Amino acid sequence: MYRVIGFRRGLRAAAEYVRSAPGTYVWLLILFLTTVALHHMSPDFEEDFLRQRSTNIHELSQNPVRVLITSAMWIDSGHWLPYAFLYTVFHAQAERWLGTLRWLAVCAAAHVFATLISELALLKAIHDGHAPHSAVNTLDIGVSYALAGVVAVLAYRIAAPWRYPYLAALFAFYTVPLVAGRTFTDFGHFLSVLIGLACYPLVRSRGKAWNPKETLAALWVNVRA
After folding, report:
1. pTM of the full predicted structure?
2. 64, 65, 66, 86: which is closest to 75 by C-alpha?
3. For 140-152, how does the pLDDT look when each residue is reduced to its tens digit (9 = 90+)?
4. Could you report the per-residue pLDDT of 104-126, keeping only the tens digit for each?
């Protein structure tokens, strides 16, 4: 009996959590449906299909608005579950804290500006002879720029001094690939972090920052009680 009650409470808590971040879970649902669709495509058709929805230089020059939107609706890896975890840990927390409109503004800013700046850098590299001309058709889809921006803006959710280790880990995670690989995608991820941090004006009125020390103290009191 107690197990049934506990299970129902768990379901209600999960449902409430999902309702508190509607944008996150609608986006996840879209990604689930598009990922299922990809699994039913042949490899050759899938590559052509995704390239037409990619934010590469060619598509941006022809259909910039369309590809900036559609590129955020597909996962080229075909693995949805890791994104379900990451969206729950980061996107849902940011949406609950900022509200749907401000969260969406951070996502859009990181996705759009990091895409445009990194593709301009790639275009310059092509013109300077540092990248092949075929790079104008590079496959570039996914949701990682928006995710990086949201992970960055969440630094403001954490009170100092706990914020600083978070920022150090964040920059290490996105700087090491940039230094080692120096690809335009790595550059885009690093830009997304900077754009997320630049969204500070959106978070100033969102209440007191979370202090892990206070949370641990409250848990300790509950345990002793």
Report:
1. 0.89
2. 86
3. 888 999 999 999 9
4. 999 999 999 999 999 999 999 99
